[in-house]
Design brief:
Blueprint (H helix, E strand, L loop, with lengths): L16 H22 L1 H30 L13 E4 L5 H6 L6 H4 L22 E8 L5 E5 L8 E4 L1
Antiparallel strand pairs: 1-2, 2-3, 3-4
């Protein structure tokens, strides 16, 4: 019995440089399209603005609840000029010296708020002891809470 030799021809192995460059180019184009479509910077800015809307409404709701519980009386520290709200835990004298509105009436015993919310842009955009949110009362007694440091040129202000 005689052994028969079998010869295999090995075809080309691997990819050519042109094929690899073509695949890398296609992947780069797809990645750039996805990054432009998703736009992470804009998504983060929108998320910060959503947080601001929530915080403004929380502050305004706390003030409203305070008014209801106190027979229509507002916290005495809210003035007719728009002023930044002081952070929870800062001494009242420090806040007054920095021309900030003291709203400890809302956070005492955590009855209306546990603490005054702080703007996501703070401390870069805010007073050192401030929250980044402004509050004022109109001549008719309506309260406005605003977030002056909103992203994407959005105006965040609620009046009640």
């Amino acid at each position: 019995m005689q052994k028969q030799k079998i010869n295999f021809k090995i075809g080309r192995v691997g990819f050519t440089l042109i094929e690899i460059l073509l695949v890398i180019g296609i992947i780069a184009m797809l990645a750039s399209i996805v990054i432009v479509a998703v736009n992470p910077a804009r998504q983060f800015a929108q998320a910060r603005n959503t947080q601001r809307w929530s915080n403004v409404n929380a502050i305004l709701n706390a003030v409203h609840q305070y008014v209801v519980d106190n027979q229509g009386s507002l916290p005495s520290t809210i003035t007719a000029s728009s002023m930044e709200i002081c952070k929870t835990g800062v001494a009242s004298s420090t806040c007054i010296a920095s021309s900030l509105v003291v709203l400890t009436a809302l956070t005492d015993e955590e009855k209306y708020l546990i603490s005054i919310p702080v703007d996501p842009a703070c401390p870069a955009e805010c007073n050192v002891n401030g929250t980044g949110y402004n509050i004022m009362k109109s001549t008719t007694g309506r309260i406005t809470v605003a977030a002056p440091h909103a992203d994407l040129d959005v105006t965040i202000s609620v009046t009640r």
